[in-house]
Design goal:
Structural class: mainly beta
Number of domains: 1
Order of helices and strands: HEEEEH
Radius of gyration: 17 Å
CATH architecture: 2-Layer Sandwich
Number of helices: 2
CATH topology: S16 Ribosomal Protein, Chain: A
Largest sheet: 4 strands, antiparallel
Length: 74
């Protein structure tokens, strides 16, 4: 019975799927990816899908840029 149970759970990774920011960029120049990932994974670890991006620092026009792929959110 133990063998059959472990076989059924082989693909299960645990946790729920959450939407979070994954940090990228370098020192003093952060950049975030908006990703869907398992809740137990590391912040910058492997993710299921990238949904968008966010640049928190203002550009030359004083705007903070964010992009979302609305097709992927559905």
């Amino acid at each position: 019975a133990l063998f059959a149970g472990s076989r059924l759970l082989k693909g299960y990774r645990g946790g729920h799927v959450v939407i979070r920011f994954a940090l990228g960029g370098c020192t003093n120049r952060p950049f975030f990816r908006i990703v869907a990932a398992h809740s137990r994974r590391a912040r910058d670890g492997k993710y299921l899908e990238q949904l968008g991006c966010l640049d928190p620092l203002p550009n030359a026009h004083g705007e903070r840029v964010a992009g979302l792929n609305l097709e992927r959110l559905r």
